[in-house]
From TrEMBL:
Domain of life: Eukaryota
Domain Heterokaryon incompatibility: residue ranges: 233-324
Pfam family, one: HET
PANTHER family reported in the protein's UniProt record: HET DOMAIN-CONTAINING PROTEIN
Protein name in the entry: Heterokaryon incompatibility domain-containing protein
Renumbered residue ranges of the record's region Disordered: 611-644
Species annotation: Suillus luteus UH-Slu-Lm8-n1
Length: 689
């Protein structure tokens, strides 16, 4: 043969050394193969037992078994991956991270190592690295050669997707929050962008992002909870005492800096921020320094949004500077805080409120988490303010019960006279321009005009005092609402039925029905550009004569006679032209009964209650209990006068019942015709009945 097989050469070479050498080589080779196979089999057995322990959440045993398997065979990425999972179960984050990195080294194309690395970094709170690793894992899944692996991509979300959703939740949370707040940790004043930046660079935000991406569906509930917890804020309610820290005093500085010690009111502001911080809130708001009053647009938005801000606060802290430590019950009621105009909404709007004495300890040492739930404190405040607890606990801003809400503010005072009206914007759910310098009567007039125009509620016309230059049907001052609304006694049902039976004998059905139909067609009140269109029943005045009064008397009393009515006396500041049948005048006077549609006894339509048990307010909020409804007009308290909804009256019956009611005493206005043809209300010092 010209060539010899290489294996044959080797055989010959071995043979040349004798039979003994052949036996040694063969034995060594066999032992090596046997040992290797045995190690692999033992490693596989350890790994299999480790899998069983891992499935049973026996992490310690699983780690030991996987470690033994790795000692026997360190080339299996699967065993390293499973040991990493077991260490994650034991929260051994750094050890799990080392195993995950080993998986990546052994199988760099697989997504699994990056998945485990992300979990380990997340557990170690190294969130920036975790998110970066997660991005790499997603790219591995996107580039995977097999379809099954690529399908796993649907189990995860991209960080950018989650970031967009979190930002949407942040924007929604801040929609009803103040424009500026104080950081209770740093003491710095922050606008919304600074707030957002502080949150998105926080550990909580990064943890939220890193944990949310691992889910197939967005956990919006958790996102909302984390955002709410981090952006919730505390509000301060207090009375201004001389000069207070303004935005310009603290901008760019920390309220905790000693360089601000000389600024008046800084001790109160610092104590408020510390109290809010100790209560667990990152942000705090005070009306002294969190509004740039030099920017008109910001001032307008702040005044119109104040009620909403207080309502959505996590806590409102009321500081009582004139209530000393260890005060007894009753000190709160006597506090000047109860006399200020803005504190009405600051008391009513918040869901949670706490009262602090002047040393920043809780009033009466009352540890109730929410003083609106403290029976003793609420009883004390009701006696002091006249505001019912149901309104304090669950007011829904609206124009319902306007007269009662005006009474709440009637004894309050404000430094700037226009604020007595501006402070009520939120309670009535109106947004109007703020124009300091317009005076109280115009500011109040614009508010009352808006209430009547939008709601048709004319209870705000029920007042005693001096008329406004804005419109004579409105008062010049909020103090005109101090007196309770006019409330006349109502007829018992049996008397109404008796009167109806008598009327049926002397009044034609057609007459009663036609009158009822005519009044039912009466239009709603309209109020615009300082002109009030008031639906009413008018009674022609045929005589006005002055009753004798002292020469220096500033009030004048007149005897007034009108068609269809009993004579009455009216006392007023106005000097009226006297006239009677033998001395007629061109000017026309009328006594009018403002029309009240409740007299028609039409079936009720469902309306949203004013005071809700819900923690929020909005047009879709519904509740059947826990609300309070004040009388909606001076003569509308017809409780018990007619059958309930279970008995529906026909129109003929309602027509005769209307005639009975029209024969009862009513609250009236005296109007005097002007040269323009319009009418002016003659204000009286008492209700005209």
């Amino acid at each position: 043969m010209d060539t010899i097989d290489e294996s044959a050469k080797a055989s010959c070479l071995v043979w040349s050394h004798g039979k003994s050498a052949v036996r040694d080589v063969t034995y060594t080779t066999v032992l090596t193969h046997i040992h290797s196979a045995f190690k692999q089999e033992c490693s596989a057995l350890c790994a299999a037992n480790g899998d069983a322990a891992l499935a049973a959440s026996d992490y310690d045993r699983a780690i030991d078994l996987y470690s033994a398997a790795i000692t026997l065979n360190s080339s299996s990425s699967t065993v390293f991956a499973n040991r990493s999972k077991a260490k994650l179960g034991k929260m051994l984050w750094l050890e799990a991270l080392l195993d995950a990195q080993k998986v990546i080294k052994l199988d760099s194309l697989s997504y699994l190592g990056y998945n485990l690395k992300h979990a380990a970094l997340h557990g170690a709170q190294r969130y920036d690295e975790a998110i970066q690793t997660f991005q790499t894992m997603l790219s591995k899944l996107d580039d995977a050669p097999d379809i099954q692996t690529r399908k796993l991509r649907h189990q995860y979300l991209r960080p950018s997707q989650v970031e967009r959703v979190i930002r949407q939740v942040i924007n929604a949370q801040l929609e009803n929050a103040p424009l500026r707040v104080l950081d209770t940790t740093t003491g710095l004043l922050c606008d919304r962008e600074a707030q957002i930046s502080a949150f998105t660079t926080s550990t909580e935000y990064k943890e939220l992002l890193s944990s949310t991406v691992t889910r197939p569906d967005l956990d919006t509930q958790r996102i909302e909870e984390v955002v709410r917890r981090n952006l919730q804020y505390a509000m301060l309610s207090h009375r201004w005492e001389g000069r207070e820290p303004l935005l310009q005093d603290i901008q760019g500085k920390s309220v905790y800096d000693s360089e601000l010690d000389s600024v008046c009111g800084m001790t109160k502001l610092r104590s408020f921020c510390k109290t809010a911080r100790d209560a667990g809130y990152n942000w705090a708001w005070s009306d002294t320094c969190c509004i740039d009053k030099t920017i008109n647009v910001e001032l307008q938005q702040s005044v119109n949004s104040m009620f909403v801000w207080y309502h959505h606060s996590a806590l409102t802290i009321v500081y009582l500077s004139d209530v000393p430590p260890s005060s007894k019950s009753g000190a709160l009621a006597k506090s000047v805080w109860n006399t200020r105009g803005w504190t009405v909404q600051e008391f009513i709007a918040p869901k949670v409120i706490l009262f602090y004495q002047n040393n920043w300890t809780l009033y009466l040492n009352d540890r109730t988490p929410n003083h609106k739930e403290s029976v003793a404190i609420m009883q004390e405040l009701k006696a002091a303010t006249g505001i019912d607890r149901s309104a304090v606990v669950a007011l829904r801003p609206s124009m319902i019960g306007a007269r009662e809400k005006l009474r709440w503010a009637s004894t309050r005072v404000t430094t700037r006279q226009e604020d007595i009206a501006y402070s009520l914007f939120g309670i009535f759910d109106v947004r109007l321009p703020v124009d300091y310098g317009e005076k109280q009567d115009k500011a109040l007039g614009r508010l009352l005009q808006e209430i009547v125009a939008r709601s048709g509620d004319i209870t705000s016309l029920d007042w005693v005092g001096k008329p406004s230059a804005f419109n004579s049907c409105l008062p010049i001052s909020i103090t005109s609402y101090q007196a309770p609304p006019c409330k006349l006694p109502s007829l018992p049902e049996d008397e109404i039925q008796s009167s109806v039976s008598s009327l049926r004998k002397i009044v034609a059905v057609d007459f009663a029905s036609n009158l009822y139909t005519q009044l039912r067609k009466m239009s709603a009140p309209r109020f615009a550009t300082q002109r009030l269109h008031l639906p009413c029943i008018a009674f022609n005045v045929r005589e006005v004569r002055r009753v004798h009064s002292p020469a220096l008397e500033t009030h004048f009393t007149y005897r007034v006679k009108a068609d269809g009515l009993l004579d009455l006396l009216i006392t007023t500041d106005d000097t009226l032209v006297q006239f009677w049948l033998a001395k007629p005048i061109e000017q026309h006077f009328v006594l009018v009964r403002p029309w009240d549609r409740s007299l028609l006894e039409l079936p009720d339509f469902a309306e949203p209650p004013e005071f809700m048990e819900s923690s929020d307010f909005g047009p879709d909020t519904e509740s059947e209990e826990g609300y309070w409804t004040p009388p909606s007009s001076p003569s509308q308290d017809w409780s018990g006068d007619y059958p309930g909804n279970e008995e529906v009256l026909d129109q003929e019956s309602r027509a005769f019942r209307l005639l009975v009611r029209l024969g009862q005493p009513f609250s009236a206005f005296l109007l005097a015709q002007q040269r323009s043809g319009e009418y002016k209300r003659i204000a009286s010092d008492h209700d005209i009945i």
